Amino acid sequence: MDVASLHAPLVRRTIETINAGRLDEFMALFVRDATVVDGPPYHGHAAIRTWAQRETFGVQMHIDVIHEKSAEGTAVEVNVTSTGGYSGPGTFLFTIRGGLIERLVIR
């Protein structure tokens, strides 16, 4: 599935910023008190930026979308595969508030 065909614009922008290596634009997609759960939780912009630099942008991660399971309301689930620091399949669960990411769970 092409990233451009994702139904949720925020999810599309998130994956595009990761693939383009644009950390500042990625961070602008999160509410200030957001949480990312990738094993342990990372709460707030400073913790998320540190996590993203180490686990995503610092290893030149590239994400391909396999399937968009849900794009209704404030919850979006996307199955992905990635290369870079972590290679393999995964699921991104987005919770959206006010047009920004409130919570991102990666499993």
From TrEMBL:
The lineage of its organism: Bacteria, Bacillati, Candidatus Sysuimicrobiota, Candidatus Sysuimicrobiia, Candidatus Sysuimicrobiales. Residues 11-103 form the SnoaL-like domain. Pfam families: SnoaL_2 (PF12680). This is Nuclear transport factor 2 family protein. It comes from the Bacteria. It comes from Candidatus Segetimicrobium genomatis. InterPro entries: NTF2-like_dom_sf, SnoaL-like. SUPFAM superfamilies: NTF2-like.
